[in-house]
């Protein structure tokens, strides 16, 4: 009996094998536990705030490495599909923006000896349609936290709003 107790305490695999032969009974069968329930208070209708609706959200990504930018675009599209967000367009500009700087090799003399430096910026765009405010905030926070180095993200939102009271729809007469 002592060997069974020592095996029971020591090895989880042995414990699982021996547990099928033994039955576990509760400490006291007479008492039953009832979970404590809090009363649910109704929320007043005045404090309920409606979620914003966005017709379109445009993501503009720019970076210096086209391979990293392409990989990040795939990541953004995959994250959108997992959240059930409709991606309508995803495209890139054909050519990169080039910014050239010309400098003298030597500051003092030799004006004809110059060096040119070039910085290329690549762009990618994604258009998302029909988003709620909470889904949009969750999605944007997720993709911004995973933004790789050397990339920038610009977000433009087009929000749907209620028609003002002073504007009335035309009547059919």
TrEMBL record:
> Got a GO cellular component term for this one?
mitochondrial small ribosomal subunit
Q: Which Pfam families match?
A: Ribosomal_S10
Q: What is this protein called?
A: Small ribosomal subunit protein uS10m
* Keyword line: Mitochondrion, Ribonucleoprotein, Ribosomal protein
Q: Where are the transmembrane segments?
A: none
Q: Does the keyword Ribosomal protein apply?
A: yes
Q: Where in the cell is it found?
A: Mitochondrion
Asked if Ribosomal protein is a keyword of the record, the answer is yes
Family to which this protein belongs: Belongs to the universal ribosomal protein uS10 family.
Q: What is its main location?
A: mitochondrion
All copies of domain Small ribosomal subunit protein uS10, residue ranges: 58-156
């Amino acid at each position: 009996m002592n060997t069974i107790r020592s095996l029971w305490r020591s090895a989880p695999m042995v414990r699982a094998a021996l547990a099928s032969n033994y039955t576990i009974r509760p400490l006291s069968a007479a008492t039953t536990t009832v979970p404590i329930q809090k009363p649910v208070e109704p929320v007043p209708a005045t404090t309920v705030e409606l979620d914003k609706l966005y017709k379109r959200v445009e993501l503009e990504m720019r970076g210096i490495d086209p391979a990293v930018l392409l990989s990040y675009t795939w990541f953004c599209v995959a994250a959108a599909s997992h959240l059930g967000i409709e991606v309508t367009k995803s495209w890139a500009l054909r050519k990169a923006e080039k910014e050239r700087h010309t400098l003298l090799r030597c500051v003092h003399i030799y004006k004809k000896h110059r060096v040119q430096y070039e910085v290329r910026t690549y762009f990618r765009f994604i258009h998302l349609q029909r988003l709620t405010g909470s889904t949009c905030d969750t999605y944007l926070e997720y993709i911004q936290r995973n933004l790789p180095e050397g990339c920038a993200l610009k977000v433009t939102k087009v929000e749907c709003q209620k028609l003002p009271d002073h504007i009335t729809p035309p009547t059919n007469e």
